[in-house]
Amino acid sequence: MKRILMVLLLLSLTVPAFADYEKPGKGIKVNPARATWTTGFFQEAIVSAGLKELGYNVKKPKELKNPIFYQGLALGDLDYWTNGWFPMHDGQVPKGFYDKAEKIGYVVKAGGLQGYLVSKAEVDKFGIKSLDDFKRPEVKAAFDANGDGKADLTACPAGWQCEKIITHHFATYGLDDHINPIKVDYSAGMADALARYNSGKPAFFYTWAPNWTIFKLKPGKDVTWINVPEIVPFTSQETAKERMTVTDVEGAISDPVKLGFVVADIRVVANKEFLAKNPAAKKFLELFALPLPDINEQNTKMQNGEKSQKNINRHAKEWIAANQEKWNGWLKAARDAAM
User: Fold this and answer.
1) Read out DSSP for 217-256?
2) Is the pLDDT score of 209 beyond 70?
3) Which domain range does residue 140 map to?
């Protein structure tokens, strides 16, 4: 009888301890946010799933524009998001921001590519290396879909930051008389460009990564990243000029390639007080990383219609199941950090 009582006593002591180890965030409310662009929803869903496994009560993310998020994070109204693009976002944070918040880990290091892509068949046929080649009559004619005498570029909608930079490129390199930037809804414009490519016609478009576009049209196989004629930074790019020329870009016309856009690190940004109080969450956010092709693949599923939150959560679960060993390692490290 005494032995049975001793076993029961030991169980009463060890089970709560084990439960505490498994769920170091039990009872703690977390207030995340996510950006307004859908290509970043996937990583938010995966991080939320991880923190929930650690016991945190993760609230529905608030969908915010960049400056509003960074202001809320500094004020302590929000705890983190996975959508920091740096150095691009450095100019959008409030004064004194880094006293209250910090960048942590790398979702994708140097993963935020931007630039111009051209169908590989035409790159090879016409020897296209940079935007300057679109001044040549035979190149303009090949990419002129509407008969206005200019090459058609699927560009950015009016008001986007990339639209301002493309306008800067046109003025700087003298392209206004040679290229027609199409500024319709981006998804609609790219769907049209993809349909044209699939029917055997040339493709010329601006894009960024992560994005479904470079899953559907793969750099190096279907399309090629091309150069700008020279690096002439836009006002907002001045402090990151060295990140506008990039090495080891798959499917680029040259190495290095002068993209003309700042290449960003995609990072988690979190409130310092939240991180200090939650070592398990801090360790998980620090370790969290995604291969760029995985994000592109998921973004393609969304583009193909699987874009509800229910779909996105399912995509996250599928990714976790396919990367279970890595996932378990992140969770163990997070739990150990809370000991």
Assistant:
1) S-BTTTEEE-B-SS----GGGGGGGGGGEESS-TTBSSSS
2) yes
3) 115-260
pLDDT the model gives residue 16:
52
Whole-number Å distance between alpha carbons of 105 and 88 = 17
Q: Taking the mean position of all CA atoms in its chain, how far away is CA 235? A: 23
> What is the rounded CA–CA span in Å between residue 9 and residue 7?
5
Taking residues 247-273, report their average pLDDT. 96
Among 233, 260, 287, where does a domain finish?
260
pLDDT above 70: residue 3: no
Residue 16's Cβ-count burial label (10 Å; 0-12, 13-18, 19+) is: exposed
β 101-112/264-271 pair status:
antiparallel
CA distance 249 to 262: 13
At 127, the amino acid letter reads G
pTM of the predicted structure, to 2 decimals: 0.82
Same domain, 162 and 120: yes
Contact residues for 207 (Cβ-Cβ < 8 A; gap 6+): 114, 115, 117, 190, 213, 214
Which amino acid belongs to residue 84?
G
CA distance 157 to 136: 26
Q: What is the pLDDT of residues 155-204, one digit of tens each?
A: 998 888 899 999 999 999 999 999 999 999 998 999 999 999 999 999 99
* Long-range contacts, stretch 134-140, CB < 8 angstroms, 24+ apart: 134/175, 134/178, 134/179, 134/204, 135/174, 135/175, 135/178, 140/178, 140/179
Residue 14 confidence (pLDDT) above 60: no
Burial string for 245-266 (b: 16+ CB within 10 Å, else e) reads bbeebebbbeeebbbbbbbbbb
Give me the residue label for tokens 């981006």: 186
**Residue 169 CB neighbour total at 10 angstroms:** 22
Is 312 within 8 Å of 302 (Cβ atoms)?
A: yes
Q: Which of 204, 236, 260 is the last residue of a domain?
A: 260
Q: What is the pLDDT of residue 15?
A: 47
